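Field: sequence (string)
Field: structure_tokens (string)

Example rows 1 and 2, in order.
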Amino acid sequence: MDYKSDYKRKSVSADEAVKVVKCGDNVHYGEFMMNSHVLDAALAKRKDELTGVNIRSVCCPFPPQTATSDPERKHFIYNDWHFSGASRKLHDKNMCNYIPLTYHEAPSFFDRGWIPIDVALIKVTPPDQHGYVNLGTSNSCTHTFCDAAKIVIAEVNESVPRCLGGSRETLHVSEIDFFVQGDNRPLIQLPEILITDVDKRIATTILGQIEDGACLQLGIGAMPNAVGALIAQSDLKDLGVHTEMLVDSFVDMFEAGRINGLRKQRDKGKIVYTFAMGTQKLYDFLDNNPNCAIYSVDYTNDPDIICQNDNMICINNAIEVDLFGQVASESSGIRQISGTGGQLDYIYGSYKSKGGKGLICLTSTYVDQEGKKQSRIKPTLTPGAIVTVPRSINYYVVTEYGIAMLKGKSTWQRAEALINIAHPDFREELIKEAEANKIWVRSNKVS
């Protein structure tokens, strides 16, 4: 049977397609912007017919109707591998659970059979002339969980950019059980992130760590965007990209002539990534662009792959860092904010890279709910906070007051280096706490 006949035969309504979901099934949604609101809404309609359906997603950018329609979780139990803002709000109401992982390992969970999948609900492009649909802007483990699923249902959306590989960025019509025509709603766009003067000061320090020919990884948030903006305006040249997440600032750097990837040791000339989140500018840039290569996350985030490019510069945010050098980037106390994501992968991979640097970047202070200024550099992490990067792996920490390199330093040397980049208003208090915690010596100096 030719693919066109097969595609026509498998095309049904969303309501018809999700009838295959049974009580107690394990259902996997898509990833990031490739989550299907169409299939989620259809499944939510079946709430009263179903119990114990276990749903997993990867950073769903909207609150799924399966979760919001069932706050007591009698019918659907919703889980997220990496929290979005929507997941965070659901978690606060006990309507979503986080799934801890080291990101590059995710595909192996399905390959090893640890996560049984009954039904996969994904979003794709229309088939090309060869009968292949493209997985769009997210490829971290989609193909792997579709391989593991007993049934695959795909929403077809003509607004999805065709993101070239890389590897495993397509599925053939024969690999999908049902197709549902979506409403062609454009992909969700990230709102503009305000870049503050403090962000710019930190970005300026980071810029001083980047040399011509470096290979970049940027995380999400104002800080990485500020770095990207400064690079676009700089005279740096021959930069490469090997990143987990692709954001708008990479487009700006490319169009400014800063990125060509010609000095990369691996995937020379290619902008390598595993998912993209940004504005329509980014999605248009990716569509059928042979300069970009989307890979599964067990490639992009494997430290043994990352380090094969020299001068890896990896830039990521954090919530807080303690004087021992531990980094908390995913929770504030016991409140889940985000996920481990690729931060650990890239900090470790950057150290193994010849000339590489892994930078944890954070503002020195924040304002709490009571309007009081608090230090992000703390004597010890907030009780209940999850360690994202252990002190033994942490490399560089950057605030608007400077940069601290922690490798090879004793506990008292780390404390000294971190207090030197803390906000001046908190340094005396931090010294007292360091003394109490026996990580301070009389010869220590604070600038």
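Row 2 begins here:
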Amino acid sequence: MAIDRQALGFGDSARAVYAADPWNSRGRLYPESLSPTRSDFQRDRDRIVHTTAFRRLKHKTQVFIAQDGDHYRTRLTHTIEVAQVARALARALRLDEDLAEGVALVHDFGHTPFGHTGEDALHAVLEPYGGFDHNAQSLRIVTKLERRYAEFDGLNLTWESLEGLVKHNGPLIGPNGEGTRGPVPQPILDYCALHDLELATHASLEAQVAAIADDIAYNTHDIDDGLRSGYLNFEILEEVPFLAGLMREVRDRYPNLEDSRFTHEIMRRQITRMVEDVISVAQANLRDLKPDSADAVRHAGKTIAGFSDEMQATDKAIKKLLFSRIYRHPEIMRIRAGAARIVTDLYQAFMDRPREMQSHYWYGQIESMPEQVKARHVADYLAGMTDTYAIAAHRRLFDDTPDLR
């Protein structure tokens, strides 16, 4: 018996003309037949969720090392929060929610153990070979390193999902062919030679809402974790006028509220104001630009989904607060130094003795590879590690492992 796609909601007319069309994708590198029950973007999202890389996010640092406590965000919980905000924005703007969610779920796949500390350490040792970029590593994971399917490496995601992964923060190539944020990482260039992701254009609006959802989520939840850890307190938050206003609002309405509920009331208001700001800005840009297709969004020459000038100033003030009070706090810097040493030590050990990379699928041939190729495979192995696995590997190979508490 044939499946009625209209009954499954596939004929939904609520999607805007500028949204990505899940039934008219630009396709996959390796062609596949359509599913009778799921759109291509639904299938992408589902493939992302079922990966090893997604599961590993559970034990990768967001800000606080996992050993600090069970209630702090990890890369996984952060990713889920980003996906929730992205989906809310997509629904409000009449976009394809599955594509927005998929881009949000995959955006941090390439992060190393120990957060940006691990990335910085890995970039430093790989600098002679092109460095390390977590966004490029995400692309390597979903196009090469995940090995789940009989007919291809990676996940064989649609062009739109890969475009969103690579370009959610904007074009990578400027009008004169220059890199917009430095040289374009080689793994991205290598993939684009096979499957052009059009690096000089903006991404879909679905990818844009995933990008701004990332900012909203970590701005809010890093404050929450900072309060929980004691690196922040309510008095410190008064330094940002936007946060001070939210606190006055909550105190006026709930004068005797306990601290935990008070914190939550601030956070939920912060997310709501930021989400509403993005929706307002995007709607105004859409009215001005009148894009009649997803491609018109890509060629608009500007980001459509972003903060207003006022909220951009607030965003900068919050980031400045987080950097000075948490990310650069002396105790955090001490822990970061130890984490960087773990990553650096492991890299050198695996370069010197590749067979120490247990269960790595390049085990049998890596010793005869050119140094640059070997370095990239060592980076793949290291970047895939969780915090706990990296610590255990260091303890196995070295007598003195830094204390990250």
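free_text_note (row 2): The CA atoms of residues 216 and 271 lie 6 Å apart.
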